[in-house]
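Work Package 3 (structural annotation) set out to generate three-dimensional models for the target panel prioritized at the project kickoff. During this period the team completed the workflow that converts sequence records into C-alpha cells, so that structures can be stored uniformly alongside our sequence database. As a representative example, we reproduce one entry of 128 residues exactly as it appears in the project archive.
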Amino acid sequence: QVQLVESGGGLVQAGGSLRLSCAASGRTYVMGWFRQAPGKEREFVAGIRGSPGSTDYADSVKGRFTISRDNAKITVYLQMNSLKPEDTAVYYCAAAQSGAKWASGWATIYSIRSYDYWGQGTQVTVSS
C-alpha cells in the first residue's frame, strides 16, 4: 500500500501561482493530479509517467501548469501559474503501479480507473 500526502494548496488571486506537492511512501509508475470542483465530476489535470518522465495535460491547463517528479524523493509537483477562478477545486494526487493494464491499453494516464492510490486532497481557491 502506498500512502500519498499532498501539500501546497491555498487561496490565491487570479493570475497568481501555487505549487502543489505530493509525497509517496513507495515507488510508483505513473503519478497524476486530478481536481474536483463543487457539483462537478473529478477530472484529469496532469500526469507523468516513469522514466523517461513523459507528461500529459488537460487542454484547460496546458501552458499554465507544469507537472514534474523527483524520483529520489518519490514526490510529484504541480506548478500552477496564471491561475483562474475556474481552477478552484480540490486537487487530488494519484498514483499507479506498473503492470499489464498499461501494456494492454486498459489503463491510460487520463482515466481515474487507472490509478491505485489517492491522496486526501488539497483545496485550491482562486479569487477574482
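The mean pLDDT is 95.
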